[in-house]
Automatic annotation (TrEMBL):
This is SH3 domain-binding protein 5. GO terms for cellular component: cytoplasm. Belongs to the SH3BP5 family. Residues 91-118 form a coiled coil. Interacts with GDP-bound and nucleotide-free forms of RAB11A.
Length: 265
């Protein structure tokens, strides 16, 4: 069987329930059409990738499978490179923070020595203690990041060495299978971008559904409040007895709470 891009279809199964038509009419800002469009594009690209990669396998032959250890080692080496670069950046930032903290203490001590009239009071002591603590924390961070930097660098070098071994052993099949794996990498990147699009719209849809459920609960509460007031007015009218006239002769229903206006706007 030809290798294919990792299946992401389980992440895009239809939701357990669809929003009712009322929800779509009252809340046209829901991103349902965009979500559907992203899903359709993802599935179309996935099917296209499977077909194109299958064609490459039939054209290239067994070199695709024979050279697979090299391409897997290359992928691992690339990941190790990214981790090493991240650790290098963190180590450089830790070194810079430590340098700035030491400079702060040096400048403070220099100012204290230059100002003869300045006494070493509690304010200076507190400031120096704070700066000293920052230096100690920066040194701890620098040591930790340096160890991580060395660890990731060694891991990267080991991965490169492993990849070179496969490269020397499988040079012929690697060159022959290169079009397949380059095409696979291109489709994988495109599918990842479409997956991000789907995830983004799915998150917006989830938030919109939650907001709409909250609005429906608020509307239900307001409706119950209105009915309760009407029942209370009806009970009061019957309690006054038959033939007793009201002030205006008409039933007055108090307006609902201010939540109605807030919900409508």
């Amino acid at each position: 069987m030809p290798p294919s891009p990792p299946s992401l279809l389980p992440f895009f199964s239809p939701p357990l329930f669809s929003p009712p038509s009322l929800l779509l009419h009252l809340s046209p800002s829901l991103p349902t059409p965009s979500l559907s469009d992203c899903r359709q594009r993802f599935r179309a690209v996935l099917v296209e990738a499977i077909v194109k990669l299958d064609e490459q396998v039939k054209r290239i032959g067994t070199a695709v499978e024979d050279s697979k250890p090299y391409w897997e080692a290359r992928r691992v080496a690339r990941q190790a490179q990214l981790e090493a670069q991240r650790a290098t950046g963190e180590f450089q930032r830790a070194v810079e923070i430590l340098r700035a903290a030491k400079e702060t203490i040096a400048l403070a001590e220099e100012r204290l020595l230059e100002e003869d009239s300045r006494q070493f009071d509690s304010a200076w002591q507190e400031m120096l203690n704070h700066a000293t603590n920052r230096v100690m924390e920066a040194e701890t961070t620098r040591t930790r990041s340096e160890l991580e930097h060395r660890k990731t660098a060694n891991h990267y070098n080991a991965c490169i060495s492993h990849m070179r071994q496969h490269e020397n052993k499988l040079k012929r099949t690697i060159n022959k299978s290169r079009p397949y794996y380059e095409l696979k990498a291109k489709y994988y990147l495109k599918l990842e971008q479409l997956k991000l699009c789907v995830d983004e719209h799915q998150a917006k849809l989830t938030v919109a559904k939650a907001d709409y459920r909250t609005a429906l609960r608020n509307l239900e509460t307001i409706s119950e409040e209105i009915h309760a007031r009407r029942r209370a007015i009806a009970m009061g009218t019957r309690g006054r007895g038959v033939g007793v006239e009201g002030d205006g002769g008409h039933e007055v229903i108090p307006p609902p709470s201010s939540e109605v206006g807030a919900w409508i706007t």
